[in-house]
Amino acid sequence: MFFGKEGLFHVLDWNAYDHILFLIALAVVYDFRNWEKVIWLITLFTIGHSLSLILAVYKVVSVDSRWIEFLIPVTIFITALFNIFYVRNSTKELKTNTNLVFALFFGLIHGLGFSTYFRILIGKSEYKLIPLLEFALGVEVAQIIIVLIILILGFIFQTIFRFSKRDWVLIISSIVIGVVIPMLKSTIFW
Fold it and tell me: Can you tell me whether residue 150 is helix, strand or coil?
């Protein structure tokens, strides 16, 4: 299960915190009452990144890695910014269907980022399918861990510290934007 561990630790590696930031931006609008949407969130992100990972590894799709390195922070920025504008203008319960669409579509971009790392791991091996599935499973487990941590922190801050859902989403999304702006600047390549 070498590739599963590599997928797990690739996402959980703090040096590759872009994956963590994206999951934070996606999941911050949810709580445990929305567990069905959280399952859809993780599933759609997995479908998106697995599809593009498979297509890239089997050389059906090829995108310049500089574009992917730029687009990943763009996806994080857009998701967090959407959270801020939506929650700021909404007084009723948060509607989170847009984040489900972001999870699927932006998952395609993140999968291309995973593919660069995976191709380095796999080298010139002819056998890609089982390692690919193991890697994707490791990524999935890491996503579940991160989303659970976000939900637990949201629960703690909203119940014990009495943050409103609106304030929780605004604060966390603003922090994510603050962290991702330097990433955006450093990945501009034109």
Answer: helix
